[in-house]
Amino acid sequence: MSTAPGIVAIALADRLAQRARWQPVEIVFWAAAAASVFLLPGKHIILAEIAILALFALSLDLILGYAGIISLGHAAFFGFGAYCAGLLAQHHLIDEPVLALAVSGLAAAALGFATSFLVLRGSDLTRLMVTLGVALMLREIANRFDALTGGADGLQGITIAPVLGRFAFDITGHAAYVYALAVTFLLFLAARRLVHSPFGLSLRSVKGNPLRAAAIGISVNARLVAIYTVAAGYAGIAGALLTQISAFCSLDVFSFDRSADLLLVLIIGGTGYLYGGLIGAVLFKLMQDWLATMTPQYWQFWIGLVLVAIVLVGRQRMAGWLYCARGLVPDMLRRR
Amino acid sequence: MQRTKLVPMLAAIAAAFTLGTSHAQVKVGLILPMTGQQASTGKQIEAAVKLYMQQKGDTVAGKKIELIVKDDGAVPDNTKRIAQELIVNDKVNFIAGFGVTPAALAAAPLATQAKVPLIVMAAGTSIITERSPYIVRTSFTLAQSSVIIADWAAKNGIKKVVTLVSDYAPGADAQKSFSERFVKAGGTVAAELKVPLAVPDFSPVLQRARDEKPDALFVFVPSGQGGTFVKQFIERGLDKAGIRLIGPGDVTDDDLLNGMGDQVIGTVTAHMYSAVHPSPTNKAFVDAFRKANNNLRPNFMAVGGYDGMHLIYEALKKTNGSTDGDALIGAMKGMAWESPRGPISIDPETRDIVQNIYIRKVEKVGGELYNVEFATVNAVKDPVKAEKK
Question: Is A219 an 8 Å CB contact of chain B?
């Protein structure tokens, strides 16, 4: 009798380990990303933006998909990191981009830590308001201190030193893309490790039911603070990347639109499996770019229409159809 | 989950990345705010540029002009990426447009790097043309009209003024130029107020302005915000308190003026263009513009776009179709022509525009509100750059 729980535990551990293992599709995904460096040299400018958006979305997925914290102000950390990187470069405090990136990420993480206590309070609706408020406040602060930030005119005249002293950012965007993709990939690896760790699993249980999670000995608040801090750091690094590759930074990094777009990215891609943000970012940016080229005046209408369609039809159902078509229904049911 | 989403994603990437290019063309990348608060600027300029191409044909010096219109929503980060993509991928020979100053400033380093002429058709801060030797402007500078209206106010019994501007570079330019000139002429500036560029609510600052009891309120808000401003100005009863409204002509923008109501009659502004500028060139322009755009009245932004396109055409004629950046900029320097707004030229030293500034008063003409010009200051150069010499 005493072995039965042991067997269950082993089977469970086995299953979790299986989940953490690299799937062939994941390898294909990253191989495709790496191949784009060589195969699509003419598209590196937009690809770099996609990589940054993907990293930013990954950051939101960490708190939304794994810890269930909904945020409408994630741009606060993105913008904070962006301005940090901009100011570091402008005043030649840290010229080396990689180091500046790390420092900006840490600064954003510190801000995330400080504001995480606000987010712990209340329900989803309160969280929406609090996160939105923090982003609006930061935007206004950046606007007020225009001697430092340039106000509505943006941070002008930044020059970014070559990455690792060797790879200079140029107008073609090659260095920018490789840099952004490499950073995104490395941080993705870290995030992947994190969510499959016992810490990540405990987050899932917190998301599922905080009361029960607390009852089995998980310190709910500490976990939420930790993941919020990590996610803020990720967002800060994404913002810093944007500043570095565009050698420019404006109040727009804090804008509500940016936070809202990010949620859309996750709605398109799906949450809670890390790739949602990445796939969503690719689809969202390409759709935006394509529609804006087709109809510069009314592209927002079409984006809206597509989003409504996606939500109405439902991603789950779309995914379901695909599974059905392939006769993989049992697999889908098991995962649910 | 992963598998099902990856397949359509990869297909989408492949579909999105199909390209096509061709030769013997001159490409003009037009970057404008077609969405958002500054959308009216984009609409006016695009319409004017297309009108010019329709009137003059799309072939110059044996080259076919291809226009690529992109929306940046007046967000400088977007402007910069779009400009970079246009230069690198589409291999454009000109980048033009630029609805707001931050957008133009963000793109300036790219013009220098790629040696591509950058034509500013809208943005009005003095420093823009100093940011790259490849920038030429066909719009205006805020300082041009602010200085002229300061002179006019000082001479017309206005002694105490409160200034109210949008809090970004052109606003600062307008405020500074006006205040310096007005104080020098013996006036006093009681308060210098600023409103955020985005989401402007003017009521608190209007109350402050009213409390100061000035003779006049000097106002600069970007094109497109004038309607909201005047509405709140009247709602707060500043007109009834005997406070006159003066400023550069952005606030009584032709695009919105007719909807502002009769209370704006008598507002005096200084600007480089009014749709009722009395010249045959302007009449032809306004008629053609209205005809092509569902009776839309062209504003000063439209004229900036129309003249910008003229500049591109004439420069290409001068270089015989050569698209070398230095040759084109050389050809543009000192070029002079008759624009719908009157005679204009490109200052060979600063690549900025030299134009007449008109003092106008809002009046009713044929049942519609217009800025009627009643005095002209000829060939005004940008005062900020003139002062630096």
Answer: no
pLDDT for residue B9 is more than 60: no
**Cα Rg for chain A, rounded, in angstroms?**
21
Neighbours of A269 (CB within 10 A): 26
3-state SS track over A68-99: CCCCCCCHHHHHHHHHHHHHHHHCCCCCCHHH
Helices A44-64, A256-269: crossing angle, 10 deg rounding = 80
CB–CB contact A32 B10 (8 Å):
yes
Q: Please, are residues A158 and A243 in contact by the beta-carbon 8 Å criterion?
A: yes
CA of B238, closest CA in chain A: separation in Å?
A: 27
A11-15, A287-291, B213-217, B382-386, range with the lowest pLDDT:
A11-15
**Global pTM?**
0.84
Q: How confident is the model at residue B22 (pLDDT cuts 50, 70, 90)?
A: very low
Please tell me if residue A151 touches chain B, with a CB cutoff of 8 Å: yes
Q: What is the C-alpha separation between B142 and B139, in angstroms, rounded?
A: 10
**Tell me, what's the pLDDT at A327?**
47
State whether A46 and B3 contact (CB < 8 Å): no
Q: Which two tokens stand for residue B247?
A: 């400023």
Angle at B62 between CA B58 and CA B63, to 5 degrees: 55
Contact between chains at A26 and B2 (C-beta distance less than 8 A): yes
Residue A302 forms contact with B (CB below 8 Å): no
Is the pLDDT reported for residue B260 higher than 80? yes
The residue that leads in pLDDT, B12 or B137, is: B137
DSSP designation for A131: H
pLDDT (tens digit, 9 = 90+) per residue, B289-346?
999 999 999 999 999 999 999 999 999 999 998 899 999 999 999 999 999 999 999 9
Contacts of B152 (CB under 8 A, 6+ apart): B246, B268, B270, B359, B375
Which fold does the domain A22-281 belong to in CATH?
Answer: ABC transporter involved in vitamin B12 uptake, BtuC (1.10.3470)
Listing DSSP states for A17-57 in one string gives: HHHHSPPHHHHHHHHHHHHHHHH-GGGHHHHHHHHHHHHHH
Spatial CB neighbours of A154, under 8 Å, sequence gap ≥ 6: A248, A249, A250, A251, B76, B102, B105, B106
Q: Which of B108, B76, B69, B72 is nearest to B92 (CA)?
A: B69
- Rounded CA-CA distance B100/B38 in Å is 8
Q: What domains are defined for chain B? A: 22-140+280-351 (3.40.50.2300), 142-271+357-388 (3.40.50.2300)
ipTM: 0.79
The closest CB to that of A319, out of B1, B9, B19, belongs to B1
Domain ranges of chain A: 22-281, 295-336
Grouping H, G, I as helix, E, B as strand and the rest as coil, residue A301 is helix
Residue contact B5–A275, C-beta within 8 A: yes
Find where tokens 């790496």 sit: A34
Supply B7's token pair.
């397949």
Please tell me the number of Cα atoms within 13 Å of B176 on its side-chain side: 15
**Upper half-sphere CA count for residue B42 (Cβ side, 13 Å):** 22
Profile chain A (336 residues) by mean pLDDT over runs of 10 residues: 69 79 87 89 88 94 89 93 93 89 95 90 84 90 85 80 82 89 95 91 87 87 93 95 90 88 87 88 89 84 85 65 49 44
- How far, in Å, CA of B59 to CA of B22, rounded? 15
Residue A275 has its nearest CB partner, among B2, B75, B84, at B2
Which residues in B lie closer than 8 A to residue A335 (C-beta atoms)?
Answer: 1
